Amino acid sequence: MPRKTNKAAAADTAVTPQIPAELLEQLIPGPVTPAQLEDIFQRFKKAFIERALGAEISQHLGYAPGQPKPQGVTNHRNGKSAKTVLTDTGALAIEVLRDRHRSFKPQLIAKHDRRFTDFDDKIVAMYARARWCARSRAFWPRCTRWKSRPISSAKSPMP
Is 157 helix (H, G, I), strand (E, B) or coil? Predict the structure, then answer.
């Protein structure tokens, strides 16, 4: 198996998200018990899910919270609904944002879904997808140059 070049290793570390030490210090101020660690993970899952759902509704509406609505947009945020989802580690109470027209359909946890299992697998899949996108963005300019190359008439299948 060929070894990674320094350029490929640098690209891998550039894509890897770094967690600031201050955040880790807030999450884990000192030695923790397994129960405390599980509580930290539950709070992280809740924050992660709610943040992802917030990003989904911002994309759906076309503007971020606190920003003025774009002209012509009649739909807007309309509060939150409580929802309890079952994860691999137990029940988790989250708040799902609503929109005025009730047209928002969350992708992470769909409407009426109560189970959110394989959270870790979904996080790994999202991470892998982000890495693939970063690598394909590096490759794409070469691909588009190849597709836009001039084709000689001798190689053309059409007369």
Answer: coil
The tens place of each residue's pLDDT in the chain, 159 residues long, gives 556 555 555 555 556 678 788 888 888 888 989 888 888 888 888 998 999 999 999 999 999 998 998 888 899 999 999 999 988 888 999 999 999 999 999 988 888 888 887 766 766 676 677 666 666 665 556 555 655 666 655 555 555
pTM of the model: 0.62
> Within a domain: residue 141?
no
**Would 106 be classed as within a structural domain?**
yes
Query: Mind giving me the DSSP string for 48-101?
Result: HHHHHHHHHHHHHHTS-TTSPPPTT----EEEEEEEEEEETTEEEEEEEEEETT
Range of the domain at 80: 21-132
Amino acid identity of 77?
Answer: R
Tally the domains of the chain: 1
The answer to whether position 6 is within a domain reads no
